[in-house]
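USER:
Make up one protein:

ASSISTANT:
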Amino acid sequence: MHTTPETQVTTKAAVSSDAQRLLRSVEAVHGSTGFHWVGNGFHVSTYFPSAKLPAERVSPFVLMDYGPPTDFAPLAKGKRGVGWHPHRGFETVTLAWEGSVAHRDNAGHAGTIGPGDVQWMTAAGGIFHEEFHAESFTRDGGRMHMMQLWVNLPRKDKMQKPGYQPITAADIPSVALGQAGKGGHVRVIAGDFGGVRGPAHTFTPITMLDASLKPNERLSVALPSSYNAIAVVAKGRVHAGSISAGAGELVLFANDGAGLELVADEDAHVILLAGEPLGEPIVQYGPFVMNSMQEIQQAMNDVHRGKLGPIPQD
């Protein structure tokens, strides 16, 4: 189900007046909840969950930690990152722009992602994993720029077998924007855009786009009005209608149109996330995302009883 990564499609910047009337409005613009360290290797800001962004407005996404460009000095000994920890009931998706991270889990999956790569891990019924800066990056130092998302699974799939999708930069098709493709480009990680489909397998309908926009270029995306949609501005400034947002801000779109549009005010980097909300109860407790507290308690009991499998001993 991979699309040829070399596919290039040029889209028109202009939109018709009919399409304009169908565009979604902006419900709100949010900042992060502040910075914190995940382990000793990831300096991130959490955009949701938060009191300002209810779970039903971002479903099927559960959590978003964004780590803006952060410089790390060389480290001669030791590791930077997060050691073995469990997950159940959802998927972790890590997008890398700078730096490199090595992943390993107790289901036998392992890999390293670097600039342009995406790691899509399905915890589902339960898994232990660890995430550390890649050894060469740790020793040499450098700049880390990444995002991690938690994607909820529907009730029927929460106890599926764990899985792993190593999606390299070469796997991800790019759609050129503007006249002669000079308006920027959109990497299609999941869902459809510009006539191409992203390589990620998803349990429910999801669109995930990584867009680099030149000044005055438009990112126009058709979506069912029932889908939740958010855009994170990693660089520059964009606007939707009369509402603008800059680097470090999240745009929450209302569910009042069959598409959305962002216009770049300057060179901009935007991550667009959209998907069909699950419409099911959600209970998140630490590393578990289930439908009830009883299922959370069961997950904790299963961890203590070793039912998520053994942790590899180095």
